[in-house]
Amino acid sequence: MSPIRSASKRGIPASSPSLTPPPDLQSKAAKKPRASKVKVSPAGKKVNDQAKTNGTVATDDIKRDDDDLPPSRPTKKPRGQGKLWPPTELDPSDHPSRAGYPIYNLPPLQVPRNGGIGPIDDVGNSKRPHLLGAHVSIGGGPATALLRASKAGANGLAMFVKSQRQWKSNPYEAEAVQRFLDLSTSKDLGGLGYPKESILVHGSYLINLGNPDKEKWETSYQCFKDDIFRCHQLGIGLYNWHPGSTVGMCTKEESYASIAKAINRVHGEVPEVICVIENMANANSNIIGTTFHDLASIIALVTDRSRVRICLDTCHLFAAGYDIRTPETYRETFRKFNEEVGNGYLAGVHLNDSKADLGGCKDLHENIGLGKIGLSAFRMIMRDPLFSGIPLVLETPAPEKALESGELSVWTSEIKLLYEIQGINDEEWVTREGEIEKRWRAERDKLNPPKEKKVKGKKSDEDGNGKKGKGGGGGGRGKGKKVKKEEDDEESGCESHTD
Ligand SMILES: [Zn+2]
Ligand SMILES: [Zn+2]
């Protein structure tokens, strides 16, 4: 049996039938997956030797040769879709090769290893690739996120699992689930090679599990559970969301307990998926998660700690007052994280530069190296074995149209840049940093020209519940919606305010 055929037999995870889905999902979730699948076959496509131009060396897992090229686009039209699958603009045979392991050996890990969910081998973190990727759109179905990530040359990715702007969405069709399962599987089995440890789902922005209002909490919980159920259906292991806000109506301690209650309850209602709490930017507000203390306090109340992790967003970290710009401040910030939370809980990073100053408490994402954090911090992350083997996800500004056309040029360039600077030694870095930043800024300006800053009357919304209803970026934005650049930047990937 060919690997491609065997991949198609995997279907929905075996544990699904034992799971009681949320009520509105039961009819569809019970539907048997179709036996047919996306037909994939190796394509005799040219190999773009990106690894060399990046100054990186691909390994067996990551590199692409004639035997592990991505699937070509079938000519068959799937039932009911009326569209070619995969979409023409995401045709896997056009994807670049993916760089992976660094050209030098990462230094031995001097601190406890991260909490990544990939297989642990005897070589430890030093031989794992940094799973660089971006938050990509699911427009066209969840499997398109894998195609977009692959097109950007990513080794990891983030995605929403439904519209992040509404409480309820239609359940998945079995075919959409099957496509995702087929494409996420290893290249040996005909997929694109996105294992569990490389995908970090981002939850709905509407969810606030810190809200003391019982009714609103329950509405949030059902949305949270639905997100996590969808992860389970897709075989995804890591679900990241914004912990919530007190909305000024309770103490932070009470919110920690409400958030932990949701985590404990969902652990009993949906199997396997790990809840990954994201750190937030808005220190000195009602928002939970702006300090390591907040994160540790929630974890302390979780019963099954094997199913809770942390995602650190570098922009949020910096805006909340944790400096990572110099070797000294970088070491100190991550020493504190290990001391207060524990490296063993770290399972993902959102890699974003910041337009806001250190401690500015504003969630304003910027392209890597072009904001207030600067390239050196990102190079340190890329050369630190603490961050290998876990998804490192860009939520940086990209042209809106790119999210719909599948043109992912800004992220493709950022991924290349990060792998490039990973391979530059300290001595060389001192002389080359300025030149590389200048080159990259010019490239970014060409790919996504900066626009005039618009003064916005947008007010922080910490008090409502579900009234805001606007989309957050990161690739999941709805079709055809025009969003001004400044809003776009602010919403790229992570909104900090929850209702
Ligand atoms: Zn984020
Ligand atoms: Zn986020």
From TrEMBL:
Pfam families xrefs:
AP_endonuc_2
Name the domain of life. Answer: Eukaryota
Task: List the cofactors.
Answer: Zn(2+)
Give start-end positions of Basic and acidic residues composition bias.
441-466
GO CC annotation: what is one? Answer: mitochondrion
Residues in a coiled coil are none
**SUPFAM superfamilies in the record:** Xylose isomerase-like
The Swiss-Prot or TrEMBL record annotates one GO molecular function as:
DNA binding
InterPro entries the record matches: AP_endonuc_2 (IPR001719), AP_endonuc_F2_Zn_BS (IPR018246), Xyl_isomerase-like_sf (IPR036237), Xyl_isomerase-like_TIM-brl (IPR013022)
Instruction: Outline the extent of the Xylose isomerase-like TIM barrel domain.
Output: 148-404
Region listing for Disordered, in residue ranges = 1-102, 441-499
* Keyword match Thylakoid: no
Biological process terms in GO annotation: base-excision repair
Similarity section: Belongs to the AP endonuclease 2 family.
Matching entries from PANTHER family are given as:
APURINIC-APYRIMIDINIC ENDONUCLEASE, ENDONUCLEASE IV ENDODEOXYRIBONUCLEASE IV
What name goes with this protein?
Apurinic-apyrimidinic endonuclease 1
Q: Which organism is it from?
A: Naematelia encephala
